[in-house]
Amino acid sequence: MSLAMFAALILYVENVADDLALVAIFLGSICVVVVSAIDDFRSLSPAIRLSIHTLLGSLVVWLILGTSHPQTWPFVVAACFATLSIVWSMNAYNFMDGANGMAGFMGVIGFGAMAIAAAFANVPQLAVICATVSGAVLGFLLLNYPNARVFMGDSGSVLLGFLAATLGWYGWTVGAWALYLPVLVFSPFLMDATVTLLRRAFRGDKIWLPHRQHVYQRLIIDCGWSHRRTAIAYAAVMLLASGDALRWHLGKPLTDSAYRWLPPLSMLLTWVLTYSVLIVVAERKIRQQHQTKITNMSTKKDQGAR
Q: What is the pTM of this model?
């Protein structure tokens, strides 16, 4: 899948050769595909994989932000945060690629929304790139959902996470959108991955080891949800989040700069509250189903003893 998507991007690369930041993103994409392909076949250690991801992220951030911002302490802080966000996006996207259609819907909807935002912001190069990625992922989705005939693999999912973050930051530097837009567009998946990581860290789990404790995985394993139902549920939430982000993006901003941050902040807080409620409801449902399974097993064991 990653080769097909990357081939689609290569067809457009000659049109962005004069933009150093976009060239850096394309070169970074090559490295991501190569490293992830090696990881697919040789299983790199988490330390090596994260080190490479951090190096790639920092280099791309330097070329995206460093060409348009002065080299000051605020820039250094912003660059570190941007690098961390890229590394997390790469890994979060990979974590969420565990059910048929999940990564596919995420790519089609997420990059499609970014393409619309860039088009209305009159940044055609970015709009075409995002639309190209969305279209390439759609081709994969048709073969992965509802019945999987092909799989994305690390080389595909990590690449999409890399592109989601780097194009998100690039769009911000060229004025295509505010930073909240890519965050909100991909928020259903970022929220699941982040909450799961924090929960495991607080429990003292080894967070670098594979697991099946994401909310979507537990809905499938403990609640008996099908892959189709789970993917549709996440896609529906993502459509709502993307629609809300585009609604604010395409609306008229407040002219008073002192209060311009209020609408997006209130929107983000509303979605944080929404996700908190959804996660609490899902956790309660999962616990109920898990307890029901334990009760049924105990009942069968008692009946067998008789």
A: 0.85
Are the C-beta atoms of 109 and 239 separated by less than 8 Å?
yes
Place of tokens 């999962």: 286
Tokens representing 35 are 């490293």
Nearest one of 302, 288, 1, 278 to 141, comparing CA atoms = 1
Name 269's Cβ contacts closer than 8 Å, sequence gap at least 6: none
Give the DSSP letter of residue 176: S
For 173-190, the pLDDT digits (tens) are 898 998 889 999 999 889
Residue type for 62, please?
W
Compute the distance between CA of residue 184 and CA of residue 180 in angstroms, rounded to an integer.
Answer: 6
Average pLDDT over residues 93-118: 92
Residue with the two structure tokens 């639309």 = 131
Q: Quick one: pLDDT at residue 14?
A: 58
Q: What's residue 254's pLDDT?
A: 46
